[in-house]
Specification:
With 185 residues, the chain is mainly alpha-helical. It has two domains: 5-77; 90-184, Orthogonal Bundle (Arc Repressor Mutant, subunit A). The chain has nine helices and no strands. Helix 1 packs across helix 3. The longest helix is centred in the middle third of the chain and has 34 residues, at 55-88. The chain starts with a helix and ends with a helix.
């Protein structure tokens, strides 16, 4: 007879939490990051209706979840660093922006910093990295519609912050604009 997931989760945390944090600490090198990683893995494991019929099966699943999340985080960080390095290696784009009245690199950095993380990521990937909407969506794990929305909102905010008239009439924005107009009514 199988026990409910609550009992398995409670027993796992009570009996093996220290070992799970130790395992995650070995991966991350930080106790705080390890505790966060274990928490994420526990939530991911027990938030779905998985059939885990014992402590050993539950621990094995959580350990796999810890390792998977660690690898995903490391890949994402490496990809983010590479993106930042590519952008930093392209000073001519910022020089071009300054020529059209955008101002200094610091002004652009401040304007980008004012965007939400998703808006900033979408704007940078779409306009500075020149990825397609689909490529941006795949890189960020978002839907294409969400990318369009974040880019549209981000470009509008940048336009206001930089006192520029940035183009919002791209074909990909037509659906976003019509929804916004419908809301205003």
């Amino acid at each position: 007879m199988s026990r409910g997931w609550e009992a398995v989760a409670t027993e796992l945390v009570r009996a093996r939490y220290g070992a799970l944090v130790g395992f995650a600490s070995t991966l991350t090198g930080s106790r705080a990051a390890a505790e966060d990683l274990v928490q994420e893995a526990l939530v991911a494991t027990f938030s779905k209706n998985r059939r885990l019929d014992g402590l050993a099966a539950a621990e094995a699943y959580v350990r796999r979840a810890i390792a998977t999340r660690y690898v995903d985080t490391a890949r994402r960080a490496r990809r983010d660093r590479a993106t930042v390095q590519r952008i930093a290696a392209q000073p001519e784009r910022f020089a071009e922006a300054a020529d059209v009245g955008m101002g200094s690199r610091e002004v652009l950095d401040e304007a980008l910093a004012a965007l939400s993380p998703k808006e900033r990521a979408c704007v940078v990937l779409r306009h500075l990295e020149q990825l397609s909407t689909r490529e941006t969506a795949n890189a960020l794990g978002l839907s294409e519609g969400a990318v369009k929305r974040y880019v549209y909102d981000g470009v509008r905010k940048l336009s206001r912050a930089l006192l520029l008239d940035l183009p919002l009439e791209e074909p990909e924005f037509s659906a976003v604009e019509s929804r916004e107009e419908a809301r205003r009514g």
